[in-house]
Amino acid sequence: MGDFSIAIHGGAGTILKKDLTPELEAAYTKGLADAVASGYEVLSKGGNAIDAVTAAVISLEDCILFNAGKGSVFTKTGGHEMDAAIMNGISLEAGAVAGVSSVKNPVLLAKTIMEKSEHVMLSGDGALQFAKQQQLQLEAEDYFFSQFRYDQWQLVKNENSAALDHNIQLEKKFGTVGAVACDANGNLAAATSTGGMTNKNFNRIGDTPVIGSGTYANNQTCAISCTGHGELFLRAVAAYDVSCLMEYKGMNLQQAMEIVTLDKLVKINGEGGMIGVDGNANTAMIFNSEGMYRAMQHSRGEKQIAIYK
Q1: For residue 208, which of 184, 229, 223 has the smallest C-alpha distance?
Q2: What tens digit of pLDDT does each residue of 73-112 get?
Q3: Which of 29, 110, 125, 146 is the most exposed place for a label (fewest CB within 10 A)?
Q4: What domain count does the chain have?
Q5: Is 228 annotated as ligand-binding?
Q6: Choice among 75, 176, 198, 208 that is catalytic
Q7: Is 230 annotated as a binding residue?
Q8: 227 carries a ligand binding annotation
Q9: Known active-site residue 176
Q10: Which domain holds residue 301?
C-alpha cells in the first residue's frame, strides 16, 4: 500500500480578500475543509479513489456557497440546469450528466450512469428519468434556491448574454466544484460538478461534463478537474492536454498543468484553474485567475486550504 492524497476546488476567478468579509471567508474555508475531510476519510480507511472524489464533491454540492447542487446559479428562465462528470483512472470508465434539474447530487447521477448504464453522458429530461429509475434523491426547485444567486440573476436577467460568476459584482468567480484523488493502490479518479453560467440560455453546456475538457483520469498519467471559462476549456481540451503532455512529452504533473493553465489557456483568454494528482499521490493546484477556492490533504501529513493567489 502506498501514499494517497486528495485535492478539491470550489471555483476560480476574481476572488480578492477585500471582497470577502471575514465571516464569508470563514464559511468558504469551512466548506472546503469539510469537503476535503470527507474525501480523505474514504482514502484513510482504505477506500478507493472513485468513492473519495464522490464524497468530496457531494459535500461541495450540499454547501450552498458553491455553484453546484444546492447553490446552483439561475438560468435565463429562472430555473437550474446542472452538469457533472466522473472518471475512473483504472478502466477509463466515465459517467456524465448535462442540463439536469431536480437531482440533489448530480455527481451521484454521473457515477450511476458510469456504473449502471452502457452510456457515458445523459442530458436533460432523459437524465432525470434515469435518475428516477435509479431512485436517486430528487429535490423541489426551492431546495436549489440561494438568495445571492437570485440577486446575481436579477442583475443580468434582462440582458441577452450569459454571465460568468466572476463578472458579476456580487460574486466574481467561476463556481464549478471538483475533486481528484489517488488511493493507496495508486488508482486515480476525478469528478466535477457545476450549475454553469448565470442567465445561461439555450441549454448551454460548458466543459464540466465533457470528458477530456473539464474532467479526466488515467492511471498512466493523472486525474484532472477544471474550473473556469468553460468555452475556452472546451476548445483547449484542457484536462486531457495535461495527460498528453505527461504521456508523450514525459513531463511531470506540475510541469504539464502549468503549461496548459499558465500558457496555453492564457493565450486564448481562458481564465480559470485546475487541480491534479498523479499515481504517486503528488498533487498540484494551478490557476491563472486572482484566486481559486482549493484544498488538499496527503497521507504524509501535508494539508492545505487556500483561497487567494
Answers
A1: 229
A2: 989 998 999 999 999 999 999 999 999 999 999 999 999 9
A3: 125
A4: 1
A5: yes
A6: 176
A7: yes
A8: yes
A9: yes
A10: 5-308
